[in-house]
Amino acid sequence: MLILRLGLSDDIHGDLPVEQRSWHISQEALAEESRLEWRTRIVNGRPIPKLKDLVEGEIENHEPDLVFVCSATFWVAFPSVPLKLRQGGAPLGRRLSKAGMWMSSRPMLADRALFHRARSMMTGSVGHAYFHEPAEALENSEAMIRMVLQREHIALAVRGPLPFAIPGPTHIQADSERRRAFLNEGLSELCERLHIPYISYGPEDRHPPEELLGDRIHVTAAGHARRAIAESDVMIRAWRARTEPSGD
């Protein structure tokens, strides 16, 4: 049995053992509930216009029994200074953007307090940009979700975007949360209309500092364990809806 997980960077980031990651924990919980052996295929769930076609190709090539959609906050709500510099088009801006992206991907640098202070200051002074607008991400996600629903033999569950710590002044943090909440509420309403099991998150659901790695975005084993509780529940509910008689 196969879970197609439209995942996010936490699924593979860092040195955490597979057994401690939320996707593996929830996979095993589903196996215990269903008394079937499951494995998980993780693919990038970035909400681009081609998402529906990409997932449709995955379904045709790998024939999953359950699709689990993880909506990532990063793409709609993370204020990126390097992206802003790159969009400027100037050669210096592009070089600075490349350097910033490189630094943020290196734990030896990105996990330092000095890096976080610098990033917060630049977010407020240099400016920032977002990778996708929430309405665009919602539209692309809906197209993909409706495509999956047409395959009635596939169970479907959706996890909303989690809140996380945002660099920069309070007004930028508030704007970021507004964008995240827009996507969360849109997905929640969509899944309610279509009777899809959904995990909704509010601003109070942010991981505490002790569950975050040094980059303040990705989570520790404790953070994965917390996420797995909700992910396991929603996947089990989706599988039951797919396999148990409706009673009609």
What's the structural blueprint in terms of helices and strands?
Elements: E1 2-7, H1 22-34, E2 39-44, H2 51-62, E3 66-70, H3 74-77, H4 81-88, H5 91-104, H6 107-110, H7 113-125, H8 134-149, E4 155-159, H9 170-194, E5 198-199, H10 221-243
Parallel strand pairs: 1-2, 1-3, 3-4, 4-5
Helix pairs in contact: 1-10, 2-8, 4-5, 8-9
3D architecture notes:
- The protein has a five-stranded parallel beta sheet, with helices on both faces.
- Strand 4 (155-159), helix 9 and strand 5 (198-199) form a beta-alpha-beta unit.
- It folds into two domains: 2-79 and 133-243, Rossmann fold; 80-129.
- It has ten helices and five strands.
- With 248 residues, it is of the alpha/beta class.
- It starts with a strand and ends in a 5-residue tail after the last helix.
Structural class: alpha/beta
The first-level CATH class name of the largest domain = Alpha Beta
Report the total helices. Answer: 10
Strand order of the largest sheet: 2-1-3-4-5
Distance between the ends: 27 Å
How would you name the CATH homologous superfamily of the largest domain? SGNH hydrolase
Write down the Rg. Answer: 19 Å
Instruction: Return the CATH architecture of the largest domain.
Output: 3-Layer(aba) Sandwich
Percent in strands: 5-15%
Q: Into which percent range does the helicity of residues fall?
A: 40-55%
